[in-house]
Write a structure and sequence with these properties.
The protein has 16 helices and no strands. α3 packs across α4. It is mostly helical. It has helices at residues 2-13, 17-29, 40-50, 59-74, 80-98, 105-118, 125-133, 138-160, 165-173, 180-190, 194-214, 220-230, 235-246, 254-262, 271-284, 327-334.
């Protein structure tokens, strides 16, 4: 409210007296319709009836409205207010977490539902409603669902603060959307076990690296859906299932991955990551340059493919009398990193 007041003060200073008087007149002559509600259950009903008007709501807001209305419908009369109050309080806790999380509220809701509702087949709130309507005890289902949702938001905040070695690598790679449901499940089943979280992050780092390295149009999500749905915290099985699934097809298999790593990789988006990993491995062997940060680093040949100045190729390399690289040098060395 303070920010809104400051905003209008600044905007009004830009207006002429005539315009300000017109604005004042419109405000004074406006008519407001008010509806006084006695209980929260009535507010939930009214919000459900009105929530498709005006500015579009987030999916989280629509879900809250829908669940509160369902509580109004299915709660015992003497429990209606307390049940709606329970939902309101849990969502209040969720909204208190949102400002501390970089992921959007709707993204976290999406990843949560992929993890626990329909896997990667989850699309809209209608999928939640479909599962909910099959529940024999709808009040219990709602309370358990929003408690789990709150736990997911809390865990995502915890994850973003993680200093885990492999989580930092995941962030360096940029975490694709299909990975988050695995992380949501991991935090549910062993969120306080740092060793297991480290192993999960390590498994996901391998998957993400391969995903970006191969950059295939093949549908990776369809291949992972069954594994996601069957994952209940057992990391050894998860690792084995992922390896087997990737090797079922040529696109994501070990052979194709090896071919890409041993082939022409100059324009691959993972080359920078590979070189940084190589640099880290060198420093572990005693080579230390200290802490530094490079901005907009680029990958270049030590010896150019074609000198930009039209001059001779760099000395010290295998060229013939016409100043052209030998076939062996082009094939074995020009585009390679020799270790």
């Amino acid at each position: 409210m303070r920010d809104a007041k400051l905003y209008f003060q600044l905007e009004f200073q830009k207006e002429t007296t005539k315009n300000l008087l017109n604005i004042l007149k419109k405000v004074e002559e406006s008519q407001l319709t008010t509806i006084e509600l006695q209980e929260k259950k009535d507010a939930a009903l009214m919000f459900e009836l009105q929530n498709n008007r005006g500015r579009d709501l987030t999916n989280m807001e629509k879900l809250k409205s829908y669940l509160m209305y369902q509580m109004y419908v299915y709660s015992r009369k003497e429990e209606t207010n307390s049940n709606i109050e329970e939902i309101s309080n849990i969502f209040k806790l969720i909204y208190g977490l949102i400002n501390d999380i970089k992921l959007s509220e709707d993204s976290i809701l999406l990843y949560h539902c992929m993890a626990f509702i329909k896997g990667y087949q989850y699309r809209t709130l209608e999928d939640i409603k479909e599962v909910y309507k099959k529940s024999p005890d709808r009040v219990k289902w709602i309370l358990e669902f929003i408690q789990e949702l709150h736990s997911t938001f809390s865990n995502m905040k915890k994850m973003e603060l993680s200093k885990d070695f492999y989580f930092k690598k995941l962030r360096q790679l940029t975490i694709p959307a299909f990975v988050y449901p695995f992380l949501v499940k991991g935090y549910k089943y062993f969120g306080n076990d740092e060793e297991k979280l480290n192993k999960l992050f390590q498994i996901m780092e391998v998957i993400v690296f391969r995903y970006y390295l191969i950059s295939s149009r093949a549908d990776i999500i369809a291949r992972l859906n069954e594994i996601l749905n069957s994952f209940h915290g057992e990391l050894t099985s998860l690792n084995i299932n992922l390896k087997n699934k990737f090797n079922e097809t040529w696109h994501w298999g070990d052979i194709n991955t090896q071919n890409i790593l041993e082939g022409y990789i100059y324009n691959n988006s993972m080359l920078n990551y590979i070189l940084w990993e190589y640099e880290a491995s060198i420093q572990k062997k005693g080579y230390v340059v200290g802490i530094m940060k490079l901005v907009n680093e680029q990958i270049e040949h030590i010896s150019p493919i074609v000198p930009t100045d039209g001059g001779a190729l760099a000395s010290g390399y295998d060229v013939n009398k016409e100043n052209i690289y030998s076939e062996e040098f082009i094939k074995e060395y020009l585009n390679c990193l020799e270790i």
